[in-house]
Design goal:
The structure is a single chain. The protein is about 45% helix and about 0% strand. By secondary structure, the chain is mostly helical. The chain has one domain. It is elongated.
Length: about 90
Amino acid sequence: MSGLSQRAQGSPSSGGEGFDWVSLVQAGVRGLGLRPAEFWALTPAELALMLGRAAPPALGRAGLVDLMAAFPDAQAGHDGLNTKGGDA
């Protein structure tokens, strides 16, 4: 497989796994009859739904709590306002 086709399929040259972009584009453009711009405007969830794959389960409370713990918004006490003074 050439380096170009590896990159097109989303597999980095280091051997990691990625998306099989060639197959996904073919499924969207040939299989679903989408124009390329329509294909690239889709989210992965929309494409999966259109291809008949089950949608991932909705985010539940436990998942939200896990995300909030992993990615906190800011330091405690931050109210979102410009506190450095000067013009906002």
